[in-house]
Amino acid sequence: MEHTAIFQKLWDDYRLINPSVDKIHHLLNERGEHIINDHIALRTYDVAGINFEALAETFLTAGYVEKGSYNFEEKKLNATHYEHSSDNLAPKVFISELKTKEFSPLVQETAHWVATQVKKADLKKGELLFSKRVWDPINFTSYEALRQESEYAAWLYVFGFRANHFTVFVNHLKSIASLEEMNAFLKEKGFPLNVSGGEIKGTKEQLLKQSSTLADKTVIEFQDGAKEIPCCYYEFAERFEERPGQLFTGFIAKSADKIFESTDKN
Ligand code: NI
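Above: the input entities. Below: the structure tokens describing the complete assembly.
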């Protein structure tokens, strides 16, 4: 699968479950903007068969190469970022995995159950990252119990394999000059921002500034009833030159730790 087709498929699902994303996209289009995605993020548990390597496979086949790895102490995650080998405007891919062994038996058992269900689903090669939730049933009590330990673990249990977020590459916008302007535009249009760690995470000196909307809410049919819970958020990134003519392409663990909180329940 070509990388453009991979992102289209992930985007089609992402915009469908996140009405705000579609609205923001249209508002920018109306201003004549053509949106370039800075990166997409995928989440998983560190269990064989569904770990970050299983998700990365599709991208490696499509011409992506590994560029950096990160450790998120507080959230107990490892992450790797990938870039396309020749298409400079292709989104970077950020894949994280939860270090399940650092959590309770509940998190570990859930992760293993998910891996078993995925195996049973017998997905076609390269299809894991689009597969969403191939496990059933899910229940709200488990979701809440998981969330006590890790919002990330709970989100994955309910939403499965799909893009957690896409990111508008603010540098490529013509009518918006900075992340500060982007945020002002979003607030003016009525989209609440994630303020955990401040509206803007990262600094010019760190070469990357990021912000995000608060996640949309969506109704999920749990075994123990329908509940409205946070879904995904939209992210915005402004990058700075690490040397003349070359924007920094990496990520900052501390900022991402805060961005992850955009899907926290509020
Ligand atoms: Ni991100």
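Note for the figure: The pocket of nickel (II) ion is lined by residues 39, 41, 94, 165, 167, 235, 259 (CB under 6 Å).
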